[in-house]
Amino acid sequence: MQNDESGRHKIEAPVWTEELIERRRQRNRAIAWTLVAFIVLFFVVTIVKLGGNVANRPF
Prior knowledge:
There is one protein chain. Helices cover about 55% and strands about 5% of the residues. It has one helix spanning about 20-50, and strands at about 1-5, 10. A two-stranded antiparallel sheet has the order 1-2. The longest helix is centred in the middle third of the chain and has 33 residues, at about 20-50.
């Protein structure tokens, strides 16, 4: 951090290189796949707990 004329701290913006952008994309993909897997897991557990007769219930 640097001080400007008024004595306040000035924060420099990060420089985004291609490597940093690619690492961020990979991290976002990993988070997305983990979220999808978590949703599928909840769906499968719900179907298993409901049992096989869920389609044969009366309306």
